[in-house]
Amino acid sequence: MVDLAKYDSIIQxxxxxxxxxxxxxxxLKDTEIRKTELEIQIAKLRQENTFLQKKITEMEQExxxxxxxxxxxxxxxxxSKEKENLKLKLQDIISKIDFHxxxxxxx
Length: 107
Fold this sequence. Notes:
Elements: H1 4-72, H2 80-106
């Protein structure tokens, strides 16, 4: 005699296993979709990061150029009268320094 109860039990177990497999399969599909979405997001963020790093480099170079221009243009920004006044002041200061140096040598 065939024990139908055992066959029913096995069929129920197989049905439960099939349901679990279907659930795991759905979770796998969802996980793969989420993984793909995250990979796309990572690629966009890497691209944005590269763009921002390039922009930072450009801005740093621009700052260096601005500093160089500021240092080089201090005297170029003066008009001729201001340059002449500055020249006279410098000559006066040099004369005073010479006078003090020559006075200290005579002592």
